[in-house]
Amino acid sequence: MPDDTPLLSLEGITKDFYGTTVLRDVSFALRRGEILGLVGENGAGKTTLMRILFGMPVIAETGGFGGTVRIDGRPASFRNPFDALDAGIGMVHQEFSLIPGFTTTENIMLNREQSRRNVAVDLFGPRMATLDRPAMTARASKAIERLGVELHPDTLVSEMPVGHKQFTEIAREIDRENVKLLVLDEPTAVLAESEAEILLASLRRLAAQGIGIIFISHRLHEVTAVADRVVVLRDGQLVKDTSAKGVEVREIAAWMVGREVDANARVRSDRSFGGPALEVEHLWVDMPGETVRDVSFSVREGEIFGIGGLAGQGKLGIPNGIMGLFAAGGEVRLHGKHVALDAPRAALDAGMAFVSEDRRGVGLLLDESLDWNIAFTAMQVKGAYLRRWLGGLFSLRDEKAMRALAEQYIEMLEIKCTGHRQKAKELSGGNQQKVCLAKAFALEPNLLFVSEPTRGIDVGAKKLVLDKLRHYNRDEGTTIVMVSSELEELRAICDRVAIVDEGRIAGILPPEAPLADFGLLMAGERAAEASA
Amino acid sequence: MSAKEVSGAKAPLRVGTRRAAALVLVAAAYLGAGAWAMLTGKSHTILVDNKPVAGLEAFRLVEVAVGRQEPVELGRGERDKFAVQGQRHRVKIDLMNGTEPVTTTIVLPYDAKMVLLSLPKLAAGVEPAWEPFETGQDAPPPAADELPEELFGAAIDPAPPESVGD
Amino acid sequence: MNTPFKLPSAARVRRFAADNVVVLIFLFVTAIAVPSSKLSGTYIIQDLLTRYGRNAFLVFSLLLPIMAGMGINFGMVLGAMAGEIGLIFAVDQGIAGVQGLLYAVLVGAPIAILLGWIAGQVLNRARGREMVTGYILGFFMDGVYQFVVLYLMGAIIPITSKAITLSRGYGIRNTLGLDSVRQSLDKLLMLKVGPFTLPMATYLVIALLAIFIVWFRRTKLGQDMRAIGQDQTVSHSAGIPVERTRIVAIVISTLLAMVGQIIFLQNMGNMATYNAHRQTGFFAAAAILVGGASVAKATIPNVLVGVGLLHLMYIVVPPAGARLFGSAQIGEYFRDAMSYAVIALALALHAWRKRANAESARAGLRGAASGAVDPAKTEGGAA
């Protein structure tokens, strides 16, 4: 590049949310016509970094950020995303922001329509101008041409294949006259392989026209294929900023997940398992943001089975779908018996229990006391802790039995509380989580789903929760399926770990497998390659 | 609203004044239309009266027409009425005796609902030939005022049976 | 994968029927009633021609809110009230003829704009529940209207004519004679074609409105309304002022309803002061739905077809009831029930379609192994 002032330079960007540092001293620069691949696990700080770049109000509301953003060498601070757009920064989001009933042209020109004046403009303001459709079509065609794809300007978005929708979005961003920097957040996530190829070719074309591109993707092979440079974030820090030339996917995966030396994983050879406890075939779950597309796996009796993967790939959808909380389909068998989906009661009756990741929403009755919380599901499902009167015509709660139960679990799980009558909402996050576990244990399930058991609780409580799970598995022989974003904890307690990517299981690894292998699976590489 | 002008170049400076002018235009149109509707739409009743008045004789037979309405014939002492809109009206009097019909223009005040127009005065050129006419009764008040029926209040809390009229 | 999916003809018929079930049921009932009413064709056509002039304008006022994604604007009764207040003043001031109508429109306009703005504000706070909110708002405003017309008019608001005031000295009488403006627009330009008389001036006003709506759709504001109607979040992130645009849609709708009610009442020739507006929203809604519109999509042909069909039923069903059951009243009950059923059916269908679309969108996400449908096809259904 002849001009050596970088298009964008980030200098010492630091950001913390309420005392938690999410970005620490991140600095890198982007030149014109350069494609920069930005990779990192969930929570590595990619999203926050982009929010800072775009001047999202949430950043200012949480106390601003440290460091400087420079565009063309000049410090820039945007008060809102529209300022960023005016400065020539475009963003293509993971979800489509298109109007389905509008044509390609109408979407590309959305709110930038070209129009003609008329008398009504003087009377009622500029919005009364009539649209100049031929001019709009011409401009949209120009943007499409710049992208180098085949896209008809008059097709309705609702009738387009997914790939074309993505191109329409990009065309909308590059239609702006002054666009010089384009940020694409997981643009290929919804695309088929062939469509992704075309998209990558378009990006190269745009870069050749001098537009700087930040390409965020968890598909690492795409990053190595298209990017000139790779920047890796981990835990809010920049861990690698290197030319993409000669970098291998495996290396990036290792940088992304971190520590090559790994002390946590322990080999437990003394474990033995029975036959298959849970068999899942071609499961799909329509859980918003966590769609499961086609998942098959089998869990052995007495096993702790881990499910990991990046956020939004569908790992949370699996337990929620099997437990009937979201619309689901496919075949699920527990000990060889078919389990009806779409019916929470059927799943509970089959002997499965679920500790939800949504503690406050699904897991707890916040305004009720602990004993009531712990006994509630067991009472509903098994009719336990009820005393029958008049031959079962009435049943009343057996307060004494409930109290005994609550006290048993308060002791066993070391729940810190003032007593079994305390309300659930008054407990800390970690103790609430223990109540959720107690509630599931009280069902005496033969299969227990635990979803994000350590989310939002402090380190001490984390260890305790994980230990209790392990002990419960060891002492009761209960099969446990644990879903977590924390790869470390999955590897610490699970017998096998499945990694979910794009709604499918990318592969199942033993916990002692190298970290880079897990990283590769998360990056969309298939099992064959990873376990090589 | 259909007139179109293609403006290639923007004229940001003039938009303010254009806008102001346009708003003044809208306001003027609103008021103008209102004034037109009020002036030309206002209805008056003209009672044409063929009675002797202030020393003037009544006509034996007279044919009178207001504006373009059908003429009416009045004998001595007879009276009829015309419903008109607007304030300025041409009144044509034909004495039916071979003389040329006389056409006069009368202008009524805006707030006169009903005027009594004396034909002898009009024919004699007395100004004004009309006088306001007050009947004292505007319209007969209805025997009993019907009030609007209740909404669903009546459905939950029905009125006592005797008051259910229909 | 992406080859265009062809429906088998039976499925296509079923799909057409599902999309037009409201219209089809209506056509069926009317087709039975027309011959059994024993009304002459000339009579039916003349009556229809008159009713077009009377009603079409009101129904047109529903178009813009539907376009802006706010469903059927049951709040249009607010506009009808504004029109009635305008007419009360026109009658009180003794302004007759077309001028009287113009006067009523000029008086009603600021009231309609104010009421429309209030309604828009309320509906913006009740997103996704615009229809029921607008409907209840209509009831509430009916109370305010009663208070103003029954207690304030003649007491605080000057009313000069004793002929329209209650004998107690304030409040407007239950029935307002509109003799001074009766059919003044219809009679302005009457065209006789064979046995039929056509109120051309009224038709001209309606045609102008239709042209306005066509033109309006092509403006920036119209485009913004269409965008908001489909996706508020996307429109907002594109910088379109969503709330303002929705308010404008309601204000225009209220204004049009005001004019529409005046046209309606001049044709009727008298006005039930406290009742005339109560059913306005309902009948306009029934008409547009019978015309094949849904609460999410409506066109000018929907209005024209719907007004014709609904009124055809209104004309023929009572005499048919009289012949078939010996009582015209049964026919009258029946036609009312039909109109309400149409609205209920259309609303239920809309909810059902939304769910069916969500379902097929979901099917598109399933793995190919689960025997799911071709995603390229179902994507379209998700819209």
Which terms summarize this structure?
heterotrimer, A: 532 residues, alpha/beta, Rossmann fold, six-stranded mixed sheet, 24 strands, elongated, disordered C terminus, C: 383 residues, mainly alpha, ABC transporter involved in vitamin B12 uptake, BtuC, two-stranded antiparallel ribbon, two-stranded antiparallel sheet, 15 helices, 68% helix
What is the topological layout?
The complex is a heterotrimer of chains A (532), B (166) and C (383).
Chain A: E1 8-17, E2 20-30, E3 35-40, H1 46-53, H2 57-61, E4 66-71, E5 74-75, H3 81-86, E6 89-92, H4 104-108, E7 115-116, H5 119-124, E8 130-131, H6 133-147, H7 162-175, E9 181-185, H8 193-208, E10 212-216, H9 220-226, E11 229-234, E12 237-243, H10 249-257, E13 276-285, E14 292-300, E15 304-308, H11 317-322, E16 328-334, E17 337-338, H12 344-349, E18 352-355, H13 359-363, H14 370-382, E19 386-389, E20 394-397, H15 399-412, H16 429-442, E21 447-451, H17 459-476, E22 479-483, H18 487-493, E23 496-501, E24 504-509, H19 515-522, H20 527-530
Parallel strand pairs in A: 3-10, 3-11, 6-9, 9-10, 15-22, 15-23, 18-21, 21-22
Antiparallel strand pairs in A: 1-2, 1-4, 4-5, 7-8, 11-12, 13-14, 13-16, 16-17, 19-20, 23-24
Chain B: H1 12-41, E1 43-49, E2 61-66, E3 72-75, E4 79-85, E5 88-94, E6 102-107, E7 114-118, H2 119-124, E8 130-132, H3 153-156
Parallel strand pairs in B: 1-7
Antiparallel strand pairs in B: 1-4, 2-3, 2-5, 5-6, 7-8
Chain C: H1 9-19, H2 21-37, H3 41-60, H4 63-67, H5 77-92, H6 97-124, H7 130-152, E1 175-177, E2 190-193, E3 196-199, H8 200-217, H9 220-230, H10 232-237, H11 242-268, E4 270-272, H12 280-290, H13 300-325, H14 328-363, H15 375-381
Antiparallel strand pairs in C: 1-4, 2-3
Helix pairs in contact in C: 2-13, 3-8, 3-11, 3-12, 3-13, 5-6, 5-7, 5-11, 6-7, 6-11, 9-11, 12-13, 12-14, 13-14, 14-15
